[in-house]
Design a protein that fits this description.
4 helices; alpha+beta; 133 residues; six-stranded antiparallel sheet; Aspartate Aminotransferase, domain 1
């Protein structure tokens, strides 16, 4: 099955339903909109679905009710994430509630240390050589 780029309508809906909290930051990962809190991703759009990071009990309840499935990418299941299929069909109240729960879960995770951006390897060598002169 070929990868499908998320629709603009879903991306806009995702953005509109995210919690209105200054701690929420938005970034794109692999061309898809995602939401982060304290450096941890808590939700994102994947193809025509929404992915939410939730505690185990909540995920299990969603799986048992048939409202979501484990999020698997390239054969690897992302342990804390649930995939809400065909997110355009879900009610705003339901999807907004899941995004809020995911934000609350993400906010309780330890903050991720920010990564420092390093110069490309060629530039580091050139810089080190100029310092040696």
């Amino acid at each position: 099955m070929a990868w499908e780029r998320p629709s603009e309508q879903l991306a806009e809906r995702f953005d509109r339903l995210l919690p209105k909290n200054p701690q929420v930051t938005r970034r794109r990962m692999f061309g898809c909109p995602c939401a982060f809190v304290n450096g941890n991703m808590f939700a994102g759009v994947y193809q025509q679905s929404v992915v939410v990071r939730l505690p185990e009990a909540t995920r299990s309840a969603l799986f048992e009710a048939g409202r979501a499935q484990p999020f698997t990418v390239q054969g690897r299941t992302m342990r804390e994430y649930a995939l809400v299929g065909d997110a355009m069909q879900a009610a705003d109240s339901y999807l907004g509630s899941l995004l809020g729960q995911a934000f609350d879960f993400g906010r309780r995770l330890p903050p991720k240390a920010s990564k420092t951006v390093r110069a490309p390897a060629g530039r580091r060598r050139a810089s080190a050589q100029s310092k040696a002169r």
